[in-house]
Amino acid sequence: RLRQQMDAAGINTPSVKTCKAALGEDVYVALVDLGQLIPLNSDVVYARAGYERYRTRILDFLADQKRITAAQVRDLLQTSRKYAIAWLEHFDEQRLTRREGDDRVLL
Length: 107
Fold this sequence. Notes:
alpha+beta; Arc Repressor Mutant, subunit A; 2 domains; three-stranded antiparallel beta sheet; two-stranded antiparallel sheet; 6 helices; elongated
């Protein structure tokens, strides 16, 4: 049921808190450990298929343009700044990008 809710929500997925409430802490942690849920930060989490879809979209843009801003991610994914920033910070943590001023540069 949560997977249906996440799929229906698209880019604006339910929060980590909502997922934990629906699944229980132990099940949530198990799904993260299995790679079925991928948290970007303490508030934003994606099911694997959604994560891969949006990750690919951003990386394709970066491969072409070499840099991206929060506004560009927001527009590319048709989402809010909250989710755009979560993606950019996640990419920084994964060492896929580096912040340079307002831009993120592909490493």
